Amino acid sequence: MGSNKTEQINLIQNRLKNLNDDELDQISYLLSLYQASSTEQPKTNIPMHFLGRFLGIEQKEDGTTEMKLGIQNENTYGVAQGGSIYTLADVAIGFQILKSLEKGEKVFTLELKVNFIRKGQGARLIAIPIILYQGKTTVVSECDIKDEAGNLIAKALGTFYLQSGTKIKPPADVTDFERS
């Protein structure tokens, strides 16, 4: 295994020599994600998944979620790419819901709609989720995405599914077709 690791490092080093400055910046950013995930302790009890870390998303203690803007989430025109804004809203709402769940419960996005209002520009975007309704199996929530000046960039509205830690077994007389 040690020689395989050495071979991989040498291969990576040789590939790095052929990259331009922009590509090296991108690789440096990716490496920083791995270093941060292994050295930094999460500020909350809910860890951020890799896509969130890749996009520069961080959950704040005040209930907001922020996304640092940069090469990792900008579009061809140098502003926040719509999918990254969508993901910011989804993550912010998901974290807000997770705070209220019991151990073993899970949350899944059923539907999420985002209206884009302004270009996402500046150093960061801030997501402010609000739970509108939380039932036994569904949650309805909205989320404002704002820039640092407080301008509304996007507005999301979503429905989320709550799954309990234990699955309910169907009666033995129910066929497989009826179970699906």
From TrEMBL:
Q: Which GO terms label this protein's molecular function in UniProt?
A: acyl-CoA hydrolase activity
Q: What keywords sit in the KW lines?
A: Hydrolase
- Which SUPFAM superfamilies does UniProt cross-reference here? Thioesterase/thiol ester dehydrase-isomerase (SSF54637)
Residue ranges that the Swiss-Prot or TrEMBL entry lists as coiled coil: none
Where the record annotates domain Thioesterase, the positions are 77-153
- Full protein name: PaaI family thioesterase
Give the classification, highest ranks: Bacteria, Bacillati, Bacillota, Bacilli, Bacillales
